[in-house]
Amino acid sequence: MLTLWPHQQSGADDIRRAFYAGYRRVLYTLPTGGGKTILFSYIATQAAAKGNRVLICVHRRELVRQTVESIRQFGMEPGVIAAGWDGESNARSMVQVASIDTLRTRLQYYPAWRYQILVIDEAHHATAATWEAIISHFDIPTIGVTATPCRLTGKGLGEIWETLIQGPAYSELRCLGCLVDCDLYTIGGDQADGVAISRGDFKRRELESALDRSAVVGDAIDHYREHADGEPAIAFCVSRHHAQKVAEMFSGAGYQSFAVDGATEKAIRDDLIGGLARGNVQVLTSCDLISEGLDVPAARVGIMLRPTQSTALWIQQAGRLLRVAPGKDKAIILDHAGNTYRHGFPDADREWTLERGLEESETRAESITMCKSCFAAFRPGPRVCPSCGAEKVAEPRTPDKVKGRLTKAEREEIERAREEEARRKRREVGRARSYEELLAIEKERGYKPGWACHRWKARERKAG
Question: What pLDDT, on a 0 to 100 scale, did the predictor assign at position 377?
Fold first, then answer.
């Protein structure tokens, strides 16, 4: 029987108390790698032991097997509701793990009275029509878990969930040994400059075209060789075509590199992901498959090639690298996309609310000290450099940034740049003197339709 970490036991207790308080839809957030799957597997098996039937919904087939293995660690064999499942379906089990796509097509065969508890993995997807339909169909006490309790646009999830419980932050999980630290290198230029925005993020087709023309993508091989030569790596790409192209580039440079996606045959995909741990695969390239939920703890290096306007997506992708694994003392993130400047460090402690999603005003990454001798960056505290042993250290200095050239990211500098960009945007809105000018800003930034109208009416009310 698996033993929970103290923070997982506390999370289970907090969720139980929320139900006792009368809430029926409880959202629990914990950073990527903090052990959410183990947490809700424990809750499910404990509930089943008391005679409650539990339905767990996941949104990818890869996560079905991952969840089944987690539940087995608590001594229970779950049932599975998923097309093409190659194991026992075990329909009599008190705990069922369902693929969202399969459950959607078979929903009429699963009446609401059959289950007493519903669990939603990656619960930030719950605002999608399919998830809403399933939650409404069962209308039973529901637990949602996610590392990013917001929409991809950053908006809150209050229309679905009634209360939000926040587990330990990244800094606490690092101290507990549940997550590893990271070294992060980023670029000065913006590879998405000029790319249009739609529904809160860059248009994928335009982004793919921009990156195909970018020299930085070609430089990814050189920087991987410089900072993490031969270490198990995941490259996060814009599209399947882009992932295939990047894999071919790395293969041509002498690395064992392969592209994986949802269309890759399952046995091949599992073998390639396992190859990162065995050492016979060095670089996996992917579009979305490894962005959420899927555990690949052996990966030590993240090659970030997909610019995004979504803080949630940035956290989900980079968080894949922060999981602990044997012999893994830290992760290395090579941010060729410039997302660090857009969203801050992925392992920064963040505050969330159901109403507004990410509380940007409360988000402040911790400061970093830089050694004068070797220029290693590290968290404040030591009087000597933990890298070279030098006795004198200095506060962060601004690195020389050349487009396409990675430099070690310094948290205070990143936060200053983000704050200045936010001020620039506010000034631009303040200088807009007509509804038409606000409408142009709405279109340029990809804001939700109606933003300009809301702003203009607010000004009219204020003017009296």
Answer: 46
